[in-house]
Design brief:
Number of helices: 4
Order of helices and strands: HHHH
Low-confidence stretches: none
Mean pLDDT: 93
Strand content: under 5%
Distance between the termini: 48 Å
Structural class: mainly alpha
Length: about 90
């Protein structure tokens, strides 16, 4: 039951980044985004990813690994977009 709750919660949290990504792609503007904040989030999620991998190796925490990996990917995408559109402006 908790694994399902973890999956649902993690998917919702990961999908929460999609409106920001769409806004960046539409406006091609990242002027109001703070790169340091996203880098700190990436660092924190990366530490959690290491923990999630260790849990998954022991046979528990697969849901945590899946949802954490999703979060890592979307935050990384935001950082890439910030760097891409900051260079252009």
């Amino acid at each position: 039951m908790f694994a399902i709750m973890q999956l649902i919660g993690g998917v919702i949290l990961s999908l929460g980044w999609i409106p920001q990504i769409i806004q960046i792609l539409k406006s091609k503007s990242v002027a109001d985004l703070n790169l340091k904040s996203y880098l700190l989030m990436l660092f924190g999620i990366s530490l959690m990813e290491a923990y999630a991998i260790s849990l998954a190796v022991t046979g528990v925490g697969l849901a945590f690994l899946i949802t954490n990996t999703m979060s890592l990917c979307v935050v990384l995408l935001v950082i890439i977009l910030v760097l891409k559109y900051r260079i252009r402006s």
